[in-house]
Amino acid sequence: MKKSIGPKTFAMPSPVWVVGTYGEDDQPNIMTAAWGGICCSVPPCVTISLQKPRATYDNILKRKAFTISIPSSKHAVEADYVGIAGGKNADKFEVTGLTPVKSELVDAPYVEEFPLILECRLVQTVELGIHTQFIGEIIDVKADLDVLNEKGVPSLERVSPFVFSASDKGYYTIGEQLGQAFSIGMKHKDK
């Protein structure tokens, strides 16, 4: 039996992504966003949802670009801080000791210390209640060499991302692999 608990943001899990933008006077800024995900395969696109008061909101609209820096679990403290502090009042790179890197492809910075980067060009916005959904086409993915597997693609285990749970406001590491996607369910295909 299930109990109704009403409409909530309890989709599990949510990513912990650090969104990079440039503000006034080309000041690099970052903020943590959990409302996001892949939204298209071809062209490859991601979506993030932000509230209007955020500095990142205006920055994306002005520059038509943003980056997603995916932190490893060893940077949970820094990722949490850049989600707490306001970009209009703090130099989050200076406070955390993280290093901004100017993207050569989009008008936004990314975080050098984080192992996986998505460089995005804004393609569409969608107004949804108190949030605006920003859809960005992934122009390039950059990865630290030590997180790439033998096929040359990022390994979840090596990137070591962590996730957010809205129901208890906690961060969690990702556990063991259960099986290979598009394979373990094949035993039910001919039933």
Oligomer, anyone? single chain
The 3D shape can be described as globular
Write down the CATH topology.
Answer: Pnp Oxidase, Chain A
Task: Quote the distance from N terminus to C terminus.
Answer: 27 Å
Q: What structural category characterises the helix and strand content?
A: mainly beta
Main sheet, how many strands, which sense, barrel? 7 strands, antiparallel
SSE string: EEEEEHEHHEEEEHEE
Number of domains: 1
Give a structural overview.
The chain has helices spanning 55-63, 76-84, 92-96, 156-159, and strands spanning 14-15, 17-22, 28-33, 36-40, 45-51, 65-70, 100-102, 109-111, 116-128, 131-143, 162-165, 170-173. It has 191 residues and is mainly β. The protein has a single domain, classed as Pnp Oxidase, Chain A (Roll), CATH 2.30.110.10. The strands form three sheets. Strands 3-2-6-9-10-5-4 form a seven-stranded antiparallel sheet. The protein has a three-stranded antiparallel sheet with strand order 1-11-12, with no helix packed on it. The protein is globular, with a radius of gyration of 17 Å. The two termini are 27 Å apart.
Give a concise summary:
The protein has 191 residues and is mainly beta. The protein has helices at 55-63, 76-84, 92-96, 156-159, and strands spanning 14-15, 17-22, 28-33, 36-40, 45-51, 65-70, 100-102, 109-111, 116-128, 131-143, 162-165, 170-173.
